[in-house]
Amino acid sequence: MYVQGVFFCLAEMEFNWVNMPFEWEGLVPKDVEESFEDPFSCKLMPDSPRYAGESRYFNLGMATTGYGIFSVYRTNGKQIRVVMARGFTEDETFFYQRKMNQKIG
Length: 105
What we know:
Layout: E1 2-4, E2 14-15, H1 29-37, E3 42-46, E4 57-62, E5 68-75, E6 79-87, H2 90-104
Parallel strand pairs: 2-6
Antiparallel strand pairs: 1-3, 3-4, 4-5, 5-6
């Protein structure tokens, strides 16, 4: 289970792409950044004890190309550090579309 409600102003934050701990697998930093700027993106905080000791958050958003991207990230309030990013799974696509429809109407 996840709790939604992580809010921050991207205009004041920068992405830290130095020494990324994952392979891009067809993604580019611009697409990941765009997924955070998506007005329908879902930013989530895990409520699992597994993540209790780590300040990690999840983002599900679309790049302007229409490609859905799931990201795990951390932030210090000034920078966003993406720990992992990949394309949506089928379940994540369904979740994203459901949340988008809730926001629309």
